[in-house]
Amino acid sequence: MRHFLRAAALSTSLVTLLAAPLAAWETPQRGSQTRSDLMDAMRPHVEWIFGAPLLFRVDDLRVQGDVAFAMLEPIRPDGSTMHRGDLMLGRGADDIFEFGGPSVQVLYQRSGNTWVAVHWEIGASDAWWYWPELCPTWWSVIPEACAG
């Protein structure tokens, strides 16, 4: 029995060690060039919906190689949250406050030295990044979405 428990523990440790590189994404530090570049890549899209100026509160930010994933909350420079009255009506946005609010999810890809917001949603009411077709490119930054 003791041999079985050691083998099971070793097996679990090996699986953990082998799986670790699959989710080896990093979170760029506040003030870093990478973090700034990622926020700047998404900012024009969100400013089109809410108007400028705005900042992002970062809820989750993952970068691995040339791909990234972020969960962001747009806020005004004074720290105030966005409200229905902030929407720039007629710019193609539904009333996102009826759904998931002003939260933003984005999948990025680096093209040369530039980060591009390739897939993104504002006010999504579901976890759209769990779409299996995204996994071949973004699996390293959304491993929980690509695990099954």
Task: Summarize the helices and strands and which ones pair or pack.
Elements: H1 2-19, H2 33-50, E1 55-64, E2 67-75, E3 104-111, E4 114-122, H3 135-138, H4 143-146
Antiparallel strand pairs: 1-2, 2-3, 3-4
Question: Notable features of this structure?
Answer:
single chain, 148 residues, alpha+beta, Nuclear Transport Factor 2, Chain: A, 4-stranded antiparallel beta sheet, 4 helices, globular, disordered N terminus
Please explain how this structure is put together.
The chain is of the alpha+beta class and 148 residues long. It has one domain: Nuclear Transport Factor 2, Chain: A (Roll), CATH 3.10.450.630. It has helices at 2-19, 33-50, 135-138, 143-146, and strands spanning 55-64, 67-75, 104-111, 114-122.
Tell me the fraction of residues in β-strands, as a range: 15-25%
Give the proportion of residues in helices.
25-40%
Structural class: alpha+beta
Number of β-strand runs: 4
Return the CATH topology: Nuclear Transport Factor 2, Chain: A
- Largest sheet properties: 4 strands, antiparallel
Average pLDDT level: 83
Gross geometry: globular
Could you name the CATH class? Alpha Beta
What is the oligomeric state here?
A: single chain
> Which sequence of SSEs, written as H and E, runs from N to C?
HHEEEEHH
Low-confidence segments, given as residue ranges, are: 1-21
* CATH architectural designation: Roll
| Structural domains: how many | 1
Please, how many helices?
A: 4
Rg, Cα atoms, Å: 19 Å
Strand arrangement within the widest β-sheet reads 1-2-3-4
> What is the first-to-last residue Cα distance?
32 Å
